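Budget justification aside, the reviewers requested a transparent look at the raw inputs and outputs of the sequence design task funded under Objective 1. We therefore reproduce one unedited record. The lines immediately below are the structure tokens for a 207-residue chain.
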């Protein structure tokens, strides 16, 4: 998984007055949990642009002005209800030997047979919640939809990997091909030739 570096200043004063002064100066107050001690720091709001305003996920290296570097992941973020400015960010420290939980973006590969026949691909999940070592987690989880016909569903079990554990129930639908007014039978050619239609990636299941 990709990593971003954020240059920051450790802060000693954490009261409301000090926090307000930081925000007035264009700084975002932050905190890192999960280590031996809680670390309070601040960085310019623009430093978080590539971390917050992106569909991608990253681990983060917090490079403090005292020379300390802390590996972490974003845990929670607070925005101003009117201006959408970042008010506060919580991070969790990560370690090479301890698994972490993250939501990784999902994207499809291939062209679904049902879509080529006029169906519509619908997504139930855009991110997959997984647990594993940070060094093993991918930037994106891909799922092959080539064999999905109209009515077929892709389940999270199709995305299993030895590198991480999927934290959704096995029957969770990631995406499916639904019918549309322009849809036609996508296996007519197979039937005409007397051949057996190939099985779908994940057969349709009743709700």
């Amino acid at each position: 998984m990709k990593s971003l570096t954020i240059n920051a200043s450790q802060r000693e004063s954490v009261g409301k007055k000090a926090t307000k002064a930081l925000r007035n100066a264009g700084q975002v107050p932050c905190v890192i949990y999960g280590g031996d001690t809680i670390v309070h720091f601040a960085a310019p709001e623009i430093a978080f642009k590539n971390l917050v305003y992106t569909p991608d996920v990253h681990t983060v290296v917090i490079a403090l002005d005292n020379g300390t570097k802390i590996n972490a992941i974003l845990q929670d973020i607070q925005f101003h209800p009117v201006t959408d400015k970042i008010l506060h960010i919580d991070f969790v420290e990560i370690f090479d030997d301890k698994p972490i939980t993250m939501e990784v973006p999902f994207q499809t590969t291939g062209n679904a047979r049902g879509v080529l026949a006029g169906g519509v691909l619908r997504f139930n999940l855009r991110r997959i919640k997984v647990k594993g070592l940070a060094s093993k987690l991918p930037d994106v989880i891909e799922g092959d939809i080539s064999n999905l016909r109209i009515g077929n569903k892709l389940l999270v079990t199709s995305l299993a990997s030895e590198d991480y554990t999927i934290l959704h129930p096995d029957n969770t639908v990631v995406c499916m091909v639904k019918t549309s007014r322009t849809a036609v039978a996508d296996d007519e050619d197979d039937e005409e030739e007397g051949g057996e239609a190939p099985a779908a990636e994940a057969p349709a299941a009743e709700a």
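The chain has a mean pLDDT of 87. The first strand starts at residue 3 and ends at 10. Computational costs for records of this kind are itemized in the attached budget.
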